[in-house]
Amino acid sequence: MLRLARIRPKCVDPALTRASHVGSSPIAIPPDLSLSLTDHSAVQISGPRGQTSVPLPAFVRLSLSPYVASPNASGTPYRTSSSGLSTPNSPPNAPPAQVLEISVQNPDEKEQRAAWGLTRALVANAVTGVSRGFTVELNLVGVGYRVALEKDPTTGGERLSLKLGFAHWIHVPIPSGITAQVPHSTRIVLGSNDKHQLGQFAADIRAFRKPEPYKGKGIFVGGETIKLKDVKKK
Predict the structure, then answer these.
(1) Distance from CA of residue 223 to its chain's centroid?
(2) Is residue 194 classed exposed, middle or buried when 0-12, 13-18 and 19+ CB atoms within 10 A define those classes?
(3) Buried b vs exposed e over 156-165: b needs ≥16 C-beta within 10 Å?
(4) CA distance 103 to 23
(5) What residues have CB less than 8 Å from 86, skipping those under 6 apart?
(6) Which of 19, 157, 187, 195 is most buried (CB neighbours < 10 A)?
(7) Residues 6+ apart with CB under 8 A from 58
(8) What whole-number distance in Å separates Cα of residue 77 and Cα of residue 106?
(9) What is the pLDDT, as a whole number, of residue 16?
(10) The model scores a pTM over 0.90
(11) Angle, vertex CA 172, rays to CA 171 and CA 177, nearest 5
(12) Where in the sequence does UniProt note compositional bias of the Polar residues kind (predicted)?
């Protein structure tokens, strides 16, 4: 008779299973940044590129402590975003002055665990935005596709004029808080302190000509690639 061995579950600390890997990760604060709480409902972040405010849920707690370099640490303590949509500029050579840690009152509650990592990501993006900023590159691929940066006659600001294979030009006003450069007639470089606003504006431009899989034409954001399909033959 075959006997099945009873497998005992491993004893795991409940506190470890409830911790957020993203939310519990500390944020390096550069020396030229300052943080302040406004009525415990938002954190005000000021830096060389401006200032911004991030709203905080009532159950989120912030802890700011001096940065202590580890003797075994190597490389830079600043993280670089792996997102192809918005890439932060090069980190400074100076080590961070402080470290910001984010926690919640009760990690066992689902709502607090969900907002833990989200709040940490928003604060980290704000710190990167006011200290280094974000940039994103758009490439126009197609016969006759081109772009020009010109003055907007209606608002007095700047706008992008796109030629994307239509019978008319497409004029896109550049919103406040975003800078645009056109180093080449088929290349656009956008910059901003707000990662969300920058990504949304890049997505709006991409929507005019999404990359198509047969000829590979369209507007490509960042390092975006597309797999070409074979044309159906009769």
Answers:
(1) 15
(2) buried
(3) eeebbebbbe
(4) 7
(5) 134, 135, 136, 195, 198, 199, 202, 222
(6) 195
(7) 40, 41
(8) 29
(9) 47
(10) no
(11) 150
(12) 71-85
H or E element in which residue 189 lies: strand 187-192
Residue in the block written with tokens 């938002």:
42
Amino acid at 157: G
Mean pLDDT value across the chain? 85
Predicted confidence at residue 67, as pLDDT, reads 78
192: helix, strand or coil: strand
- Domains of the chain, CATH where assigned: 18-67+96-132 (3.90.930.12), 134-221 (3.90.930.12)
Angle between helices 195-206 and 110-131 (to 10 degrees): 90
pLDDT tens-digit profile of 41-71? 899 999 999 999 999 999 999 888 887 776 5
Write down how long the chain is.
234
The answer to whether 116 touches 107, Cβ cutoff 8 Å, is yes
pLDDT beyond 70 at 141: yes
